[in-house]
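Entries read sequence, tokenised fold; example below:

***
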Amino acid sequence: MSSTATTTGVEVTRTLTREQPAGWTGYARRVDRALLAETAWPAGKNPLAFVCGPTSFVETVAGGLVALGYEPGRVKTERFGGTGGR
């Protein structure tokens, strides 16, 4: 997994779904509930999550975080690209 964490409490986890560079040891799959369960901060810590991307990605991730117990108001979203379907 490729993660960066700082003393500010910000953590970024990357997953590459198409091609991975030589030596990549991180995730190589689409974001789903199982990946979120492995990498997301525990809901009991009342985390603030920011999700940005195409509509279908944002809906999948935001819904997955809420299903894991995140407060919906603490999952901030921003969509770009087309707004219809997958």
